[in-house]
UniProtKB/TrEMBL annotation, chains A, B, C, D:
Residues 76-157 form the Malonyl-CoA decarboxylase N-terminal domain. This is Decarboxylase. Transmembrane segments: none annotated. PANTHER family: MALONYL-COA DECARBOXYLASE, MITOCHONDRIAL (PTHR28641:SF1), PTHR28641.
Amino acid sequence: MFLADLLTTVFERRYLSKGADKADDRPLEALVADLIGATGEVSGQNLARQILSRYGALNDEEKRAFFRHLAEGLAVSAPAVRSALEHYEKGQSKASYREFMEAVEPPRQELIRRLNQVPDATRLLVGMREDLLRLSKGDDVLQALDLDFRHLFASWFNRGFLVLRPINWESPAQLLEKIIAYEAVHAIDSWSDLRRRLEPVDRRCFAFLHPAMPDEPLIFVEVALTKGIPGSIQGLLAENRTQIEADTADTAVFYSISNCQAGLAGISFGNSLIKQVAADLSLELPKLKTFVTLSPIPGLVRWLDGEGIDHGSADEDTLRKLAARYLMTAKRKDGLPLDPVARFHLGNGALVHQVHAGADLSDKGMKQSAGVMVNYLYDLEKVTQNHERFASIRTIAASSEIKSLSTAGENAFTLELSALN
Amino acid sequence: MFLADLLTTVFERRYLSKGADKADDRPLEALVADLIGATGEVSGQNLARQILSRYGALNDEEKRAFFRHLAEGLAVSAPAVRSALEHYEKGQSKASYREFMEAVEPPRQELIRRLNQVPDATRLLVGMREDLLRLSKGDDVLQALDLDFRHLFASWFNRGFLVLRPINWESPAQLLEKIIAYEAVHAIDSWSDLRRRLEPVDRRCFAFLHPAMPDEPLIFVEVALTKGIPGSIQGLLAENRTQIEADTADTAVFYSISNCQAGLAGISFGNSLIKQVAADLSLELPKLKTFVTLSPIPGLVRWLDGEGIDHGSADEDTLRKLAARYLMTAKRKDGLPLDPVARFHLGNGALVHQVHAGADLSDKGMKQSAGVMVNYLYDLEKVTQNHERFASIRTIAASSEIKSLSTAGENAFTLELSALN
Amino acid sequence: MFLADLLTTVFERRYLSKGADKADDRPLEALVADLIGATGEVSGQNLARQILSRYGALNDEEKRAFFRHLAEGLAVSAPAVRSALEHYEKGQSKASYREFMEAVEPPRQELIRRLNQVPDATRLLVGMREDLLRLSKGDDVLQALDLDFRHLFASWFNRGFLVLRPINWESPAQLLEKIIAYEAVHAIDSWSDLRRRLEPVDRRCFAFLHPAMPDEPLIFVEVALTKGIPGSIQGLLAENRTQIEADTADTAVFYSISNCQAGLAGISFGNSLIKQVAADLSLELPKLKTFVTLSPIPGLVRWLDGEGIDHGSADEDTLRKLAARYLMTAKRKDGLPLDPVARFHLGNGALVHQVHAGADLSDKGMKQSAGVMVNYLYDLEKVTQNHERFASIRTIAASSEIKSLSTAGENAFTLELSALN
Amino acid sequence: MFLADLLTTVFERRYLSKGADKADDRPLEALVADLIGATGEVSGQNLARQILSRYGALNDEEKRAFFRHLAEGLAVSAPAVRSALEHYEKGQSKASYREFMEAVEPPRQELIRRLNQVPDATRLLVGMREDLLRLSKGDDVLQALDLDFRHLFASWFNRGFLVLRPINWESPAQLLEKIIAYEAVHAIDSWSDLRRRLEPVDRRCFAFLHPAMPDEPLIFVEVALTKGIPGSIQGLLAENRTQIEADTADTAVFYSISNCQAGLAGISFGNSLIKQVAADLSLELPKLKTFVTLSPIPGLVRWLDGEGIDHGSADEDTLRKLAARYLMTAKRKDGLPLDPVARFHLGNGALVHQVHAGADLSDKGMKQSAGVMVNYLYDLEKVTQNHERFASIRTIAASSEIKSLSTAGENAFTLELSALN
């Protein structure tokens, strides 16, 4: 890696800078126009490099103007589409379809593809979209532009191009510092903390990477190997906990899943992560029989509050019932669960397995979910069936215990409400 | 690699086959419909695997039917496009643009992306397009379908995703046998022959690879390090030639460039190959000053014949003049050179440097070009300028020697013609 | 690898050649004396490089003289040893032991260690010993010198420094051509033949490598995955055989084990190879239950002839009995089995499991063992116990079938002998 | 790496533990005797594993007893040596030399080699010697035992087996934490501090590694790329310093060299490190012309104090003169420089180039050398010659400036002394 990079770098300095690569001080829009019109890779790469470099130096206002230029100046031409559509309707030939395809794709999509010709461009373009998402709030025109980025990224970050890699204490520091930065569920506060999550024989971590940006994890999951299903995140992560031999574990607990790239929002690739990790672990550790999460319930308190339920003094038993009720019955308008984490795991084919009170005593955990956490269970032989029922008829798969708790929760619920009256 | 593959394989056998992955004997069209309609990756991967597997077992007639189904059954809906276009024209909002984007993309594009979710799918889809190109001859409907493959592949095989790798005697046998199979210019007839092109210290080979099909070269170039510019391919490849120390060479000769994937026809990625290889070699061997090809002139004889010139008895001097004249003046209707190899190198920014008679005495060489070969010169500091002039105003860059020869060739030409009369 | 090599090479050319590294035309003995006396690595590396280079250009007569110089000129000094021994006996201090150690080690050992300071030296020194073994036949003085090489190599090629690697169709061509060259049991006659042994899913190959000579296998084993124990090598290797899925195999057959380095003769590292390969395969393919060899019996015919048994017309049943008898009872003076292959596998803890007549119909197979082959069985839970009994009290572990055959063989034997009388 | 380790681990658990590998509760001495007497690798590996594991659990008293057993119970037998020597003197045959070699090598050397058969043994044996060096202080018998370890390690860690690797922010965290721990010259106090030394484009680090303990650096050097020769370590390492582009640097400064393995004390492999790093950097950065250290002068103050020179109030100019004088003239009894760092660099062929006052204002720097530091210059074309003169006739190579300063220092010295009288 080191030497390959070196060669590339040295070359670029030595040759590219000599000739056409010298800074072009025309307006960025002119460079963009040139790149779209460029007839070959030779000049295209120089232009792409310059545009990306110039973009990197823009302030937010200038970025907004740049995006607006793409959105308005490089949009599809409705008359051209109309004309192409008419030709296509008259006769569906290769020629008419080609005209149609060319008309319906806005030039900015070709621009983004051409920008991607140079080293490191993919990472920079993901960063560009991160800017766009931030700057397009409330701006319908820029939000439309984002659809083009999203369309291309869905193609580029297609599941077939992603690579699953174990992340451990042997991984490059460069990658590990990203894990520290991106952990979104239970913050990692130092390299020592990171080490406690990666190095012990009963801990694992896996990430999806894309070959064009190999130092940037896209999504990662942290796993604890345990005997039995744990009911407390603080217990699971305690510094003084007792380690076990990995091959004596019967359970793999997915206790944290973090998306890393704001610029890839809406591009789905996490769905198969847990399933694939579970598979790899099964092979390595044949005694593993249970694959569960230990997940937050981020919407619980808000929902309880919205329902007018005073949970502040609820005992643990009541909290579990209320949580089960929430997970099983609280829905959005489209019929999907209200809780975003539940939507993710149920959508993957997991089932709601257990709920634990007093499971997350952190400030965030108490505030969001009154300390309650949930295990979603991945039964590898049932995930497809669960997924399909969930996707088609919104059935929430759950253990019989959760179902009982939820029913009991209805009573607790009624009780609470009646107590209020 | 070996173990990673193993893990994946074992898992798929162990888990996936248990449940939903069992063979689905519904018609292929039904599986395709399901995959397009699938709501998540979980069932999507199973379907993709089955469709690719089923496709692999089809005969040509069945493949043609499969393609026809994609072409006709999964095309864009003109009324939907028209309706979306009208909404978009009324107000260019995110919502109207999303409707437009969804309407103008035929479902078969999403199908191809979803097929690409499983391991090895990229290679299989490139193979599928190879079938399509073969089976669509004279079939305008299938040729239109090819535009969708081409559109997606242009995105997937974007230059930014390709990796340049040296190919040498330390490379995997699996990759090397592909080099033997794909060499298109000067055939490699055995492993010993291959070894003579890869192992000597004055020989090099480089290929572009794509991370999703790492065992399949996309394009490769073979290089000889020499003192001075060679004028004979048989001399360059002679078994008993004298090797030189690489660091005493002043010239790198690109004597063979081969595209490998018929299924990637029309997807451009070769243009930057020579330039990048020249750069890497420059760094390694600072004494290298000259980067040239030793190229066939495949259209020479046909053109001479077409012009009614009897070259059978021409002496070497005359042949060189005629070749220079051909390269400098023979054009297609669009003003580009008639010779395809000339188009490629001039389009990359090279210039016509020298021509050699008696340079390729093979049957093919004698038949195509009366034994004449040409050196195109890559001057790294001028490729951009050459390229741009060629692309914009069709200027063919050439050495003064070639220009003189070409002018002299005009006389030779006139002479020949007058001799005929 | 490629770039690292490049860096080293370029550096050596650029710097080392400038100064002290220029060819030193003093006698080789003078360079040797200098290297032994050199006070540091700086000049030592230059000397080492020159000596190795000069050695490489010697003819056999000169090599013999070089070895004789090492043997006689750089031997231990008996008076110095005697003096050191006396000091040591008087008082076993650090100082006296240091004097003793210095006295008893001949300077040529330090010479060999110092030669090993430069890149690729290990491989060259192994080659040097190969020369020595060849040239020392019948020369007791040179054979004594070999003990020093052997002593150092036993340290350098200590089992703890070796690396087990799978060899497959993805391995470097450079390594694969060595496999072709070194196969000693059943010759590989082309790259296609090699491919048939490496690429099918039911074939494997593993080698021990040393990090200092990574392109040179030290020993390798070829494995066939089968259902049931095969009884014919030609059947096992037949071009038109039916492949099976690896995960349906119940048996791994070690059908060829080849030592690669003549210069490492007598350095043991093969003993753990089969055991370790069996372990790796077990993990990958849990259905594998049986680990056997399909081995030649190279001494059978010679023994039968020696015993005066006319086996030419023996039927298959009789041949099996005679083979079993040979393997179970034919011994050397030291009580170990007469058959070298039997000694190797029994020494590793295997047991004699089955014998097959008509199992190797090649010329070599018919000539050496009348076509009979044997399976040695590696029962991973019993190898230690088998090994220890064999090593301590010469017990040959065998299946009950073999024991019966051997007893029957005694009769056959008597019968044959009586038939002769 | 990860999967390979996994395979090994799983295997060892699965198979080795079943049979002979169960804990053997006989005295450690009995296991040692068994291992020396073991007839093959099969049982030897089990014994080696157990001995190393048992050793790891010993306390210091028990370790001392274990070492005493090796030192006294597994020593050479003087009578056997005497007898072998007599045979050898009578006739220098292979047989008599073999007897001699066997007699003069104590069984504990074979023991150490056999312990090295199992994974990770090399690292454990290096740790064992670290214990031995610590526990053998003042114990002549144990110190003699150390000679055996040292003898074997000199063979195992022969320069030809070491690998030079760049250490950077892409290196495994596991390796980087060792760099933090082992930095012996200018302490690294956090991961952020480490990052400042590795990640900037004008900083480099290189280490020698051994393939059998790939996570353990043996020695490493930290390098700063600068314009001109720096005269202050605090300036060089300042957080707010200005970075430069690597390819604009003309000087590489080796500002810290740390040995990492106490258990490899006395095994030389650092001598070629700087020379080789200088070579690699030269290739990468052709503008680099000067290779210097920025080194402490650890013995300066002690020497000044010993000489009775009151340096407390000396001005910077005087300090430089005194330092030059110290480096050029202060010698040990054997004629080598008194200063250990000077011995190292001069022994490598460097010359004393410049001295700087106020160059190390840390507590340690002020206390050891009154803040003075020195640049040793590596002139790649002169290192061999410098080295040889230094090694043979103790000539200290120095710049003319240093020579002048040293002469002036003599006066300063006399002055100081006269001032005292």
